[in-house]
């Protein structure tokens, strides 16, 4: 078998590896964009394949393509969608032409070749441009693929992962409603709260994060497909966008629709920027949760040591017995990456010049990476950390009994300034606040016990 075959495109002939499914335009992109070694995410390529499949179905319904050609394209797309690893066939670098034309043509060429080979046709029977790309342009296909991939990944991966983590946190919150500890503001001792209340705050962060993700889904489900090159729909049937959206909805079980304005959908990436903003906010929430866990686990002797995270691996190559909070650390790094991705997507969103955004592949890569990282981080945090951490009751009870800030509950009885004097004395002498208050006020022991009971103070209100 020869090492190469000769392929031809509008610029002329080019040698392509003999066993490659792609053709000349993909080969030119491989040669031109040797920049990062990063290929487009598989989720994105699958979205492009779903688009090509739906387009063939729409063109068939509209009588624009011969049935055997459409069926061959659909069959080829199904074959690609069943593959676990698509990188061999879709090697074009992320940092390519800003419209993503190279990736679109990569898909067109691979699908055309598979369709021709599978049905024993000649290469010309299924043409990459005339058949696979019929009624489409890279300029509406790639923006649509960003939306389709993001919508599918949000619905099937990230939102369920957030819900799973929240369920773990809520379960522990319920179980720890009676575990009273010192609250902290400015990292300093503050009024008491329960661990259940603390975890309840985390759970609400995740609930709000899910609401933000759900809020952007309707806009992600509005697609540029049908606007073709600049938004006018040139070379596409007037009903193509609707037939396409219906076919895609059937195959994905997600309700997609044509964009309300194709010019906006092709020229901008505002919806991707919005979705990235929701992902960044979720990352900020997870960073807060991860860092709280690290602080609470710190020590175990010289830190707070309020909880003990599961020991997952040795923590040091030189210090025997050291165990580190590796999952919260990994989650924190994920959050940093997602926040960085959002900055890149924001800059990409600004690059809609006239009728086309020209940073589409980078936006797609970063958006899908953020979804993937956050999905995995939520799963790991819930399954490996939240589910099984231990509460060290002695470590939270001992400092709570001496917490001078409990004196806040005496403000209505003796006033702020007098209470401050008691707090300073208790802190200086290292004595429980109740003992010092008994000496410096005329309040009875029973009244002090009532006012300064940490568990009661977690409920707020006046004693």
In percent, how helical is the residue content? 55-70%
Q: Which band does the percent of strand residues land in?
A: 5-15%
**Sheet/helix structural class:** mainly alpha
Multimerization state = single chain
Q: How can the largest sheet be summarized?
A: 2 strands, antiparallel
Query: What sequence of helices (H) and strands (E) makes up the elements?
Result: EEHHHHHHEEHEHEHHEHEEHEHHHHHH
Q: What number is the mean pLDDT?
A: 96
* Number of strand segments: 10
Taking strands numbered 1, 2, ... along the chain, how are they ordered across the largest sheet?
1-2
- The number of helical elements comes to 18
Low-pLDDT stretches are: none
Cα radius of gyration in angstroms: 30 Å
The span between the termini is 88 Å
Q: What form results from the Cα inertia axes?
A: elongated
Question: Would you kindly provide a written description of the structure presented here, covering whatever features stand out?
Answer:
With 463 residues, the chain is mostly helical. The chain has helices at 24-32, 42-61, 67-81, 101-118, 128-132, 138-175, 195-220, 240-252, 262-267, 270-297, 326-349, 360-386, 393-401, 411-414, 416-429, 433-440, 445-451, 454-457; strands at 4-9, 12-17, 180-185, 188-194, 222-223, 257-258, 307-308, 352-353, 356-357, 390-391. The strands form five sheets. It has a two-stranded antiparallel ribbon. Helix 1 (24-32) runs antiparallel to helix 4, helix 10 (270-297) packs parallel to helix 12 and helix 11 (326-349) runs antiparallel to helix 12 (360-386).
